[in-house]
Each structure stands twice: as structure tokens, then as C-alpha cells.
Design a protein that fits this description.
Structural class: mainly alpha
Largest sheet: 2 strands, antiparallel
Order of helices and strands: HHHHHHHHHHHHEEHHHHHH
Strand order of the largest sheet: 1-2
Number of strands: 2
Shape: globular
């Protein structure tokens, strides 16, 4: 059922877009900021040989580095100043959000409103700096060690000076991206950090398209496979667009109140429960946990003895956790389902929601306020989360299954496609809001409203 805002947005006159000067300036600022982001992704770290680095990265494909490289727009593959992208900030944000839902002091800080939100954002930035330092040090150390084992020296002058310089450069690059994202949010259109992630994912689309059609021309990829890929991408986009806007709207009734004319009027509202409350967090967690052992064993290289017991376990784990293997897809689906329920339980508290409704005098018709309302909310949320978990599992496992069947290397996964569609929908919604505000401004100007002369 479409809301009033959706109906009003569908009737917007896009001819007024050319007249909305502020909106055009915001869009141009956003485009310019994203261009700066793409330029930075080609600036390498000092002391790194980019040509040898490409050969090293090609040997570690299939691990968790592929996820980070996708989200950073290929910056990790080129080991640029923004090789870590905004992933440390995303990780810190998830940790702070989880802690704010579990720790009493942070939970109280979360309820303080704007001041509490600013404090939590400050903690998130500190966490992002800490994670960037740790990840940057391990990236620099691993690059030296792995290059030495492979006989390819990607670092010109290995040592502590290179590691310290790499950490400083990576911290500066990540912090600049966070600042750029905040500027997009305040002076541009859409959420800045989300747009940066989406730009990194979309930037690999031309390369994927060129490789796909080149494979069709050379005969390595059949025409049927190309058509199936295109149809799958279009189908997944339609499914994601529909499911991400799907929600269960619970009717909330408020007591009758006296209106200006002396009549008693009962207020009604709706409590929207999204079908996918957890967003894109479950696929990120599930894929990261599964690909972490594979990445560690890849970086271990020749140091693992396949004849030993531990070496045999590592080799077997490498075989069964490869992309497209039945074990990998089964564990991936199980991880998505588990984290969907876990993260939904963390971000939505039925007891707190029921208590807020009770304080404001609201109630669900036929359900007593308090504990019964909390139980009913938990009952409804559990059942719609089942549908949401199935939806996320299908969207994320379908590309993996197609990869296993065709052997085509996709530039995206289910997580990447979820991010692209969600960010696009949110950005279009904000553009519609700006156009709507502009139309209201034109109506007010045409009405020539003036105060009463006395």
C-alpha cells in the first residue's frame, strides 16, 4: 500500500528540475566529490611497485581481499592511498552500534538525542582511526612478507620506515574519504559514505562488461550465458527494489483528544516494520567470516606444510571453502540467516518500542499496552524476518551459484548489488524531496501570502 508521500512524489513535475538551482548545485558538488575519490584511487602508496603488485594480487584472488577491493573501487588492488576505503569506518560503526544496543552506558548515551548521537559518532571516528592503523600495519607487513615468499619484491625498500609511512598514508587517505563523505552529506545529495562505496562498486562495471562481451566474441563465454547474466542482474535489481521498500505497517491508535472546534478526535498512526530490518550487514558478516580463513592460508603461502596435521586441515579447508563449492554456499546461506536474526534483534527492541508507545498513550487495537504489545511486536517481527532472511539468502547465493555453473568472474556479489540498489533508491528519494520542497516554495511565491494589515 503506497503512502501519501509516495503518491505525492509520483506526481512531481520533473520539468521544474531545471529551475531548482540549489538541487543542481548539490548534484554537481556530489559528482565532483566522487570524481576526486576516483582520482585518488590511482595514487599509489610511496615505496610500492604497482606493476609487481598486480601479479601479487592476482595470486590472492578469491579471499576476503576481493570484498575490500570491490568496496574500494579497485584501490586495494592498486594499493593506493585509499586502499582501505571507508571499510574501517563501516566496521567501527557496526561495532559502536552493536555496543550501543548492548552496553548500558552507551545505551543511555544513545537515548540523549542529538548530543548523544554526536558523541557516538566521535567514538566511531576514533575506532575508525584505530582500525585503520591496525589494518594498515598488517597490510604493509603482509605485503613485504608475501612478496619475499613469492620472489616478487613489490616494496622498493622494506623496513619499518616503509611500514610507518604506509600506515600514515592509509590513515590520511581513509580520514580524507570520511571528510569527503561528510561534505557530500551536508553540501551534496544522498549519504556521502554510502555513495563513495557505491561509486567504487559501479566503477568496475565497465571492465566487467568489456570482459563479458570480449569473452562472447572470442567464444570462451556462450551467448546463452551472457543473456542469463543480464536477465539475472535485471531480475535481482527488481527483486531488491521491491523487497527493500516492503514493510508491515501496524496500526497505532491514540486516545481521543479535543480538537479546536471542540470535537473529540482519535489520532491514528502506523508503525512500519521493514521486511529487511538488518540491511546489508548479514551478507558482509557471513562472507567475511567465511573468506577470512582462505585469505590467511593464501598469505601463509609456502610456510604451511601440507604433510603435517595442521597443514592438511588448512589444505582441506582451502578446497571446501572456495567460491562455488557446495560447502561454501551452504555455510554462506546459514551465516546470512543467522546474522539476519541476530542483527535484527540488536537494532530493534520490542520492549523499548512498547514502552515508548505506552508513554505516549498509543496502543495497537486489540493488544494491551506493555508486555503484551512487546510480545506481539516480537511475534510479527520474527515472522517477517523469516521472509527477509530468505530474500537475502536468495539474492546473495544466486550470483555464487551462477559463478560455479558458468565460471564467469562477476564484478559484483549479492552484497554489492544490495548496496548499489539501496543507495540509488535513497538518493532518488532525496532528490524527490528537494523537488517537492521546491514546488511548495513556488506555490507560496505564487500565492503572494502577506500578513494582515492593521
Amino acid at each position: 500500500m503506497a503512502s501519501r508521500a509516495d503518491n505525492l512524489a509520483s506526481n512531481l513535475n520533473l520539468a521544474n528540475f531545471s529551475k531548482a538551482t540549489e538541487l543542481k548545485n548539490r548534484i554537481w558538488f556530489t559528482v565532483g566529490a566522487l570524481i576526486v575519490f576516483r582520482f585518488l584511487s590511482f595514487v599509489p602508496l610511496p615505496g610500492v611497485n604497482p606493476l609487481i603488485l598486480q601479479d601479487l594480487y592476482a595470486q590472492t584472488r578469491g579471499g576476503i581481499l576481493d570484498i575490500f577491493n570491490t568496496f574500494s573501487g579497485g584501490s586495494l588492488e592498486r594499493m593506493s592511498l585509499i586502499a582501505l576505503g571507508v571499510m574501517p569506518y563501516i566496521t567501527a560503526s557496526i561495532v559502536v552500534q552493536l555496543a550501543a544496543s548492548l552496553h548500558p552506558s552507551l545505551m543511555a548515551l544513545k537515548k540523549e538525542g542529538e548530543s548523544g548521537r554526536k558523541k557516538l559518532n566521535q567514538y566511531t571516528r576514533y575506532g575508525a582511526v584505530f582500525l585503520t592503523v591496525i589494518q594498515g600495519w598488517f597490510v604493509a607487513s603482509g605485503l613485504e612478507a608475501y612478496g619475499a615468499q613469492s620472489g616478487l619484491q613489490a616494496v622498493v625498500n622494506p623496513g619499518y620506515m616503509f611500514r610507518i609511512g604506509a600506515v600514515i598514508s592509509l590513515v590520511g587517505g581513509t580520514m580524507f574519504l570520511l571528510w569527503l563523505g561528510e561534505q557530500i552529506t551536508s553540501r551534496g545529495i544522498g549519504n556521502g559514505v554510502s555513495l563513495i562505496i557505491m561509486a567504487g562498486i559501479v566503477a568496475q562495471f565497465p571492465t566487467f562488461t568489456a570482459n563479458l562481451f570480449e569473452g562472447g566474441r572470442s567464444g570462451s563465454i556462450s551467448a546463452f550465458t551472457i543473456v542469463a547474466l543480464v536477465l539475472m542482474i535485471v531480475g535481482l535489481i527488481l527483486v531488491i527494489s521491491f523487497m527493500e521498500r516492503a514493510q508491515r505497517r501496524l496500526l497505532i491508535q491514540y486516545p481521543k483528544r479535543a480538537s479546536q472546534r471542540g470535537m473529540m478526535q482519535a489520532d491514528r498512526s502506523h508503525l512500519p516494520l521493514k521486511l529487511n530490518t538488518s540491511g546489508v550487514i548479514p551478507p558482509i558478516f557471513a562472507s567475511s567470516l567465511l573468506l577470512l580463513p582462505l585469505t590467511i592460508t593464501q598469505f601463509a603461502g609456502n610456510s604451511v606444510d601440507p604433510e603435517s596435521t595442521m597443514g592438511g586441515i588448512v589444505v582441506t579447508m582451502n578446497q571446501y571453502l572456495q567460491h562455488g563449492q557446495p560447502m561454501y554456499m551452504a555455510l554462506y546461506a546459514a551465516g546470512i540467516i543467522f546474522f539476519t536474526f541476530f542483527y535484527t534483534a540488536v537494532v530493534f527492541n520490542p520492549e523499548e518500542t512498547a514502552e515508548n508507545l505506552k508513554k505516549n498513550g498509543g496502543f495497537i487495537p486489540g493488544i494491551r499496552p506493555g508486555k503484551n504489545t512487546a510480545n506481539y511486536l516480537d511475534y510479527v517481527l520474527t515472522r517477517i524476518t523469516v521472509i527477509g532472511a530468505i530474500y537475502l539468502t536468495v539474492v546473495c547465493v544466486a550470483p555464487e551459484f551462477l559463478l560455479a555453473e558458468t565460471g564467469v568472474r562477476l564484478f559484483f556479489g549479492g552484497t554489492s548489488l544490495l548496496i548499489v540498489v539501496n543507495v540509488t533508491v535513497d538518493t532518488i528519494t532525496q532528490i524527490q524531496s528537494h523537488l517537492l520542497a521546491h514546488q511548495y516554495g513556488d506555490l507560496i511565491k505564487k500565492a503572494k501570502l502577506k500578513g494582515r494589515l492593521r
